[in-house]
Amino acid sequence: MTSAPAAPAIRPLLARLAAETLGSGVLGGAVIASGIMATLISDDVGVQLLINAIATGAALTVLILVLGPVSGAQINPAVTMALALDRRVPMREILPTVVAQLVGFAAGAIVANLMFGRAAVSISTTVRSEPGLLLGEVIATAGLVAVILTLINRGQQAWVPAAGGLYITSAYFATS
What we know:
Strand content: under 5%
Number of strands: 0
Order of helices and strands: HHHHHH
Helix content: over 70%
Number of domains: 1
């Protein structure tokens, strides 16, 4: 007779926060660095978008696979909030987790800029305040959360890394 595999041990909060900081930093760095690299490789906006989408989706997939066993690899405040509402993350952990994610994203942005010899911190001059862009972000994020929660609630957690990475890759082309 075989027994069911043991549930993974719950890691201490500090380890989970460190994983969230690292994951958010690597993802943020990958998004920004691949965007910078894309502009260096091609003047074609379509090629730039393709480079950025593939790099982001691949990074997200790997990060979920590697960090999932440590922290759940939420990496995104919206995912953290959705998991908390689904009672999968304790409410008392929302604030420290989101702070860890924001610190990670900021650090990843700085590292990406420094890798390409740019100022560590700069203010974008690109206007991104159109309502359509906000709508696109809401749709992309809501879709990602729906994919994650649907798979988890169906007991198909093993599909979350691939589905999350593929969804984000496609969202680059399907949203504004």
